[in-house]
Amino acid sequence: MRPIQIAGTRSGIGAAVGAGAGGLVGSTIGQGWRERTLAGVGGALIGGLAGAAIEEGTTGGTGFEFIIQEDGRSTPITVNQTNEEGLRPGERVLITRTDRVRISRAVGAPPPPPPAYGYGTAVK
After folding, report:
1. Glycine zipper 2TM domain location, by residue (predicted)?
2. How many Å apart are CA 69 and CA 75, to the nearest integer?
3. Consecutive 10-residue averages of pLDDT for the chain (124 residues)
4. 67 CB contacts (<8 Å, ≥6 apart)?
5. How large is the greatest C-alpha to C-alpha distance in the chain, in angstroms?
6. Distance (Å, whole) CA 78 – CA 65
């Protein structure tokens, strides 16, 4: 288990919402139709860039790469996800395979073994 950076999504929804809001707000600035049009276009560009950055920032974050040794298989698998459950090395997990592979704590599994010396233990 090691920390990783999970990239945020770039679906275009944030950019579209930001551009719409920026264009709407920008079009209220100015006196004549030319000024309002230019302000609306500028607001849409700035809003689109801000919306895309906000979308990417809110959907990304820090996660963990879990290396899992499945029962009966010789090759381990890796799963990248956040660790809301506080999973620790050595703990038994349930692997769910749909369009994504996710892991969760196995219900009724024995407690995880104590951490090995030098990993998660205080040195005295």
Report:
1. 13-55
2. 7
3. 86 94 94 93 96 90 89 90 85 90 84 60 50
4. 1, 76, 77, 78
5. 75
6. 6
